[in-house]
Description:
Layout: E1 6-9, E2 15-22, E3 25-30, E4 36-40, E5 46-48, E6 53-55, E7 60-62, H1 63-72, H2 81-91, H3 102-117
Antiparallel strand pairs: 1-2, 1-5, 2-3, 3-4, 6-7
Helix pairs in contact: 2-3
Amino acid sequence: MQIKDLLSVSGLPGLFRLITTKNNGIIVESMEDGQKKFLSARSYQFSPLESIAIYTHDDAIPLADVFAKMKDNPPEDGMTKSDQREYFEEILPEYDQDKVYASDIKKIIKWYLFLESEGMLEIVEEEEEPDTEEAEPVSEEEE
């Protein structure tokens, strides 16, 4: 999944792509309209999507894993709050209902639908790392 440089910003709707960091904030690009802007670290809180996790009764599950489960059974646009909660229980039955609020579920579904429509949830295959075993040295034959 390609969510590495994506951020959620407190107080602002939608998702943003990190462009660069500055001493007193960051420069981001809106995923919806492509507009670039500076956001002060004093005024906003930034949450990288790859660091967001959903509470379960035992542990927390990274958002990327939740999105992978959602890919098998995608949500529908325009679901009611009760439909969203039922859907979330279906894809992640072990989530902690006391810590995961309806607003969190709504945001996750909205993000998923947006990222899926943009084709950003395609599974990116990691390149295989070369074997670390030592190979026999190759020498050129002398003639």
